[in-house]
Design brief:
Blueprint: E1 6-20, H1 22-26, E2 34-35, E3 37-38, E4 41-56, E5 65-80, E6 83-95, H2 103-108, E7 111-115, E8 120-124
Antiparallel strand pairs: 1-4, 2-5, 3-4, 4-5, 5-6, 6-7, 7-8
Protein name: DUF2071 domain-containing protein
Organism: Flavobacterium piscisymbiosum
Length: 125
C-alpha cells in the first residue's frame, strides 16, 4: 500500500535540548547508534509541535486535522560505508489527534532522521 504525501502547516515548534549521561543514553538507543556527544555529554530533548490542516496533498484545508504533538529526541551518530553519519533518534512520540493519527509516527515511525546539508532522509526502525 502506498502512503499518500501528507501536507499541512507547522503552527508552532518548541525544541528543548539538554545534556545527559552518555552511559544512560546508550541503554535506550539501538545498535548501530551511539550518542552524539557535546562536551562529553549526550544531547537529548523534547520537541513540541502544533500542526494544522494535516491532510493528503491536494485536498482542501477544511478536511485536514489539527494536533499538538510531542517527541522525545536523542542526537545520535553511526558509521555507514566508512563515514560517520549523524541524526536524531525518536524513541517516543505522542499526539492529541482526535482521529488517532500521530503525524510523527505516520511520517517516520520509530526511527532516525538523518541530517545532511542537502536534505533530511529517514531510516525506519
Amino acid at each position: 500500500m502506498k502512503i499518500p504525501t501528507i501536507h499541512g502547516y507547522i503552527d508552532r515548534r518548541i525544541l528543548i535540548n539538554f545534556t545527559a549521561d552518555p552511559k544512560s543514553v546508550e541503554k535506550i538507543i539501538p545498535f548501530p547508534f551511539r550518542p552524539k556527544l557535546y562536551k562529553d555529554k549526550a544531547i537529548v530533548g523534547i520537541c513540541l509541535i502544533r500542526l494544522k490542516n494535516i491532510k493528503p496533498k491536494g485536498f482542501p484545508d477544511f478536511v485536514g486535522v489539527n494536533s499538538e504533538n510531542g517527541a522525545h529526541r536523542i542526537a545520535v551518530e553511526w558509521d555507514e560505508n566508512g563515514e560517520t553519519k549523524s541524526g536524531v533518534y525518536i524513541p517516543i512520540s505522542r499526539s492529541s489527534s482526535s482521529v488517532g493519527i500521530d503525524p510523527v509516527r505516520l511520517s517516520i515511525g520509530k526511527g532516525v532522521i538523518e541530517k545532511d546539508a542537502k536534505s533530511a532522509s529517514i531510516q525506519s526502525q
